[in-house]
Amino acid sequence: MKYSSKLIADAVAEFTKLPGIGEKTALRLVLHLLKQDEEKVSYFGTAVMRMRSEIKFCKTCHNVADHDQCEICANPQRDHSTVCLVESLRDVIAIENTNIFRGVYHVLGGVISPIDGVGPDKLNIESLENRVKEGTVKEVIMALSPTIEGDTTIFYVSKKLVPQGVKVTTIARGISFGGELEYADEMTLARSIATRQPYENVLVKGGQ
Description:
208 residues; 2 domains; 7 strands; alpha/beta; 9 helices
């Protein structure tokens, strides 16, 4: 597209760098901001800048937080003996939206994927082991996407945790293989968590 203003062109170019935003959508967003009061646009920009500069990651679970500990980990009403292991922050949001899980989380920050250069050392696995060693964690729910990388990660992490005596379970496969957890509908995701099963049962079935 050709623009009569370089300022508009530059703004559109920045918006297109966001995932899922094409040039037409970017232009629509820029023109929308252009119609707003300067104060509103300034607030929008400030909110984004503050988010980027002031956001923290929970020292316990690696979830996003405004302080050293996220609201979930700091909530005494949550079940701190049950930890749900997820790949990303988006998975935490997806599970929280089901309103069924009352435990806490541990964000891995990805999954093991040698082809992408992601090994166990690049994930938040050691901190999970340390949480389990403290003795308060009784169950770790493997809520990773049912992909080859997800299954590989579950297998690796379970080998680290089982010897410590913690119960390791995995969400039921209501989510099709190859699907991403964050895109599952809330009902399916809630049912998958509620009907989770011991991981050793899954290994037995997989070996048959």
